[in-house]
Amino acid sequence: MSGQVLMGSKSEEKLSGPDLLEIAKDSVVRISSKLGEYGPHGTAFAYKQVMTETGSSVYFLTNLHNFSGVLQLRNTVFYLASQGKLDDELLIKTTVDFRGKTYLVDKIVSCKGALLDAFQHFQDFAIFSVNTDICEEVKMFALPEASEARAGETVYAFGFPTDTDLGITEGIISVVYHDHKNPLLQHQIQHSILINPGNSGGPTVNANGVAVGMSTWGQTSDGRRSLSGMNYSVNVAHTFEICRDSDLIEEVSMERIYQHFVARAREHFKFGS
Amino acid sequence: MKISSIDDFAEVTTTQPLKGLLVSQLEVWFPYSLEAVKLLREGLILAVRNTSSIHLNQISNLEEDQHYSLLRIDSIDTRHFVIDQIRQDRSDVPVSVEGLLEKHQHEWRRSATDPEENNLRIVTSVSPTGLEIHLPLAVANLVGFDHAVRPDLGTMMLGEVAYLMNRDVVQLVVNRGMEAPSSKNSVMVAGAHTLYRSPALDVLLDTDALFRRHLGIFGFTGAGKSNLLSTLISSALGSGSDEDRHGESNVLLFDVNNEYFGLLVDCLTKYDAHVVFIDDEISDSMAAFLDGDYALLRDAANEFLRTTTLSSTVDKLYRQDDGQGRAQILEITKWLLASGCFKRFEQSPEHLALSVLLQNVAQEGESLKKKLSGTGMKKKQSAFGTIVDFICSGFQDVNRNITVQDFESILNFLNLAIEYCASDDEAEDNQVAMLLSENIPKGDKDKLYSDLLGPLKKLHDFISSAQRDLESPLRVKGHSIDLSGIRGALHDDKRTLMIFLGSENSLREFSETLGSYIYNLRRRNGIVDPATIFIFDEADIFIPGQAANATDEEKDAIRSSKKIATTLARRGRKYGLGLGIATQRITYLDTSILAQIGSYFVGRLPRMSDRQKITEGFGIDKDSLQSGIRDVGDWVVLSHTAVGDRGAPLPVHFNNADERVVTFIKEFDISHYLHLSERRKKHDYLSDLVENQKNFTNPISNLDFLP
Asked: Which of B23, B89, B467, B482 stands the most exposed, by the fewest C-beta atoms within 10 Å?
């Protein structure tokens, strides 16, 4: 059993919404990066399970910005510090709620330098694993093959918008971008699914149970007019294409970043910037 | 809009434009009617056709261009010419005068627009604005030609009709040549023209010119000087956008009465703000907090709020029964304290001389040496002593400022020694080994050297802490600031607001210290940006005309503040340094400074002598200086530089700073504010993380995550 690798498989027949939701309930999780009660949350989804002697390691894909969001909170840190909060109350943590348990996320795999620098949408991904005691198979969506996302196809998004429970929304793929002169659109899947803050990092799944994309962003205005129904998912096939080139990716210790961050904020509180 | 005649710009009564007659170059008469009385106001504009409109070589029957000179109404008087005559001649009995008046009043009430009584006139005395309104009627059908206000080249002819101009023309005159406020310029909306408050006719002010060419605020007690100053500072700091203007304005405020915290608290949270205590007149808890005792945050905030003067409206909020206002103000003050906004002024720290450090090291070394005991005490002590001596005698010139390299070389040497003592290896051919082997033979290394480790590490810590202390941000930043810190804040790309608090004398002396430092710095380096204004509230304290009753100490201090104020007033402009003064008695000021001031804000001034000081400089009628002031918040602005209508008395109603501050306090939401300030500070902490990136990241070690 140990060492066995399990992954979601593509369904030959079209699955209904409730069927897909059954899979999502098993493998789509809420991910939160919090400083006390402050900080954002998003969605992550499992795509691979490796059985171990004591259970299994489960690999997740999510948006990188589910981690970087909390790094905007330095002033909150030093406000809390000014209130005399202790070190252990000033911890920043990223956690996932998976099958009734909360797991801490430390190391992530992401595009080189992306977390601390401006990144393009197609680089907005992070991969991490958690070690669990789960011995049975986790139901997962299948990963796509290259160019599996097709315009016109019906797709569903799963996630935790705002403070809601896991939900499903539907739409169709409008455009599949590969290279594009606008860097924002490179390797994006434009679709009409309603997604909201909190959906970030959730899977965009077609009726065959393949997670072709990862809900990432939406356009609500072009600066002059308000827009609707223009939402985008990162093309998951392309994400794993990037991951196969180890020169493009790196391992990041979130724990160390968070510690450094709190230390700096404390220093700022003490001495001013 | 197609222009057909001057009627398009004239105020109209129910039937037709209100028309008067130019009786002399300085006088226009209007028929006496209810409507005329209601429409005519001091400060409004009349238009009278001038000679530029007469075209001697007219060759067509087309409409010709029209030019109307613009006149400002200075005063309005009503005269009954028969009564005047009677009174002058003293030729009739009082009953005749009273009879005439009764008759006229009766008739006037009966007919609002067309009175039958024809001996009664509204007499307006007017002064030229130097402008005309040009109506290009000959080419009115062509695109690109429109009416315009421009310099007046014609002459008015007596007997011409005078039209009362409407709001549009007043606006053109008041804001002539001013760009609309935008992110790219320093223009702000100062307030509303007092005659057109609703809907407001915005009066525009160029803050850059206002700051660089000096400003003065003169009004009697209760006129709202501080309130106006707060409004001006708040709008000036807020004008334009940071991206386009790179912190164009900085404000330095010498606050004798400790009253501007309450008036500018919203600005303190928005900009690079500093409340600087320049002497020891601060509460114990504040002093302790600034020294680093953060447990006293709340006490320091409470104590400060007790001593600062809150304006009546804010104070009312503070004392509200439900305690909410108080809680909010306390929360804001705590936040400002916690974010390092309050600080003490400190003279620049002396540079530490190397000799001083070495003396300290020798002392510390001696005491550490004495603590060595046990087997081979003498050997160990002399070995440790050798190391200390080596450090202390290792420099050629010790009477110089200490450098980073000095610290590094000492610490490197100590690291070598620690490493050597901790290692099991026998003596290597290094510096430390050779030094130590003189006292402790190599054979004894294992036994004795490990005892040296403790003292060596302690000495290392002692020196690193001296280094940290020297480089500590506390010395220049955070809860204290020195001149170089102020210089830095004034010349970065952030808008800076500094409020200096202290006793009269400390503030006087400090103004000179700071002023001449910044002035000389800019002069030597040819710096002109950003515009920075030194504002002296209660200016008669800083630049009095005479200080007969002052003690010697005060006289010295006054000399200092006068000196810097004079320098700034005369020569500051060249280097972007402005002077702002606010006082209630102009007569008590040193008048040589008044002549340099580009913009005056004049409130109620009951004393003729005070008014005269101002009108002399501008050559304007002394009545028109006060006629525009009707309500609290009304000021007459006189400026040669910062407004469109230059040199003319411009009545402006300014927004109430109290309302702004109270709204801010009520709406203050710490979480929202955190969000805003995060954005502002985003850059520096992210760049810090980027710099330390190597500590957080590793190359990919295993590829298990791949599908």
From this structure: B89
